[in-house]
Here is the input.
Amino acid sequence: MNCRHCGTELTHVFADLGHCPPSNSMLSAAQLEEPEQHYPLKTYVCDNCWLVQIGEVKKAVEIFGEEYTYFSSYSTSWLDHARRYVEMMMARFDYSEDSLVMEAASNDGYLLQYFHQRGVPVLGIDPTANTARMAAGRGVRTLVDFFTTRLARELVADGQKADLLICNNVLAHVPDMNDFVGGMQLVLKPDGVATLEFPHLLNLVDDCQFDTIYHEHFSYLSLSTVARVFAAQGLTVFDVQELPTHGGSLRVFARHSADRSKPVTDAVRELLARERAAGMLTLEYYQDFQPRVETVRAEFLEFLLEQRRAGKKVVGYGAAAKGNTLLNYCGIQGTDLLPVVVDASPYKQGKYLPGSHIPVLSPEAIREEKPDFVVILPWNISAEVADNLSYIRTWGGQFVTAIPSLHIFSEAHASRARTAPVC
Here is the structure.
C-alpha cells in the first residue's frame, strides 16, 4: 500500500480504530435486520510527505451517494461562520456581478447563498442530489457531480472559470488528492484565488481528536503537506488563517504559482516553522497517539458503566460522524449504555446510528426523558449545544464530552469546546 500523494510505501501506523461501518451511513428500522458492512479504520503516516491517510479506502461514490444525511444549514454556528467568510472575502477581493464564485462540495448552499444574495454569480458542485435540491431552493445553481480534473476540463470548455474557488472541508474527503488539486489549477482564472478549510492535523494530535478519523475522511492534513501537494500542481499557498472550527482548522489561500500579485505572507512562513518545531516532519511525533486514544476509550466506557450502576439516565446529543467513530471504537452496541441520541436534523430523526444501532430522536426527547447526563458527541459545538439545552439544569442535568479527556460540566461557558460545525 502506497501514499496517495507521493507513492511512498506506507509502513507506519498512526491510529488503528478497528473495523467500523461508514460513520454517516444512518440506518432505517428495516436495515437493522440486514448485514452491515464494516471496513478497517486504520490510518498511516507517510514518512516522505507526512500525509496521514486511511489505509483501506471505501469508494467515495458509495459514501456520497444520491442521499446524504449531513446538511450544513442545520448548524447555526456554521451558518454564522459562512456569513463571516463571505463578508471578509467581499471586502478583501471585491467580487461583483462580473465574478464567478464556485464551491466544490457545496452541500445545501449554506455558503454560496450569501454570495448570491449580494448579486455575485455562483456555481455549486456537490455529488449528493438531496443537498443539491435544497441548494437550488436558495437560488444556488448546483451541478450534481464530484469535483475532479475531468469535471474541471468540462467547465473550462464551457467557458466557466472561477475568480474564487471554495473548497471547505472537502480536500480530506477526496480519495485522489492529486486529481482534485489538479482540477483546482485548471478551473481557476490566472489571477483567481482558491480557499480551503480543513481540520489541522496539529490539533488532532495535540488534543487526541481521534473521533475525527472516519472512512469519509481519507486524509488528515498539515500546512506543510498541503503546500507540497499544491506546489506539485502549480499552485502556491500565499496566506493562511487559523480557525476554531472542527476543533482547530486552517483556512488556506492559494493562487497560481505564476501569479506574483499575491505575495506569500508571514503567516504562512510562521506556521510552517511552527509545524516543523512541533516535530510534524518526524516519525516520533506520530508514534504515541494510539496509547492516548485507548485511554480516552477506557475513561468514556467507565463513565457509562458507572452511570448504569448508579441508575442514572444518559442520552447522547448529535448523530454526527465523530460520535459514531467514538461509539464504534468503544464497542457500544444497542441501547444498554446509551439508550438514545437526539439530533436537530429531521433527516436523521427516526433512523439508527451505524454500528451501535442507537435510535435517533428529536431533541424534544430530552425534555421528556429528563436525563441526568447529556453526552455531546460533536464536542466541537458543545458550547452551542449547552446553551441551547441549558434548561436541563432545572432538574440537575449535566453535560459530558469525551475528547480530549472526560469532561463533565453544567454551564455553557464551562465547556472547553471550540464552536464549529457538526460533521
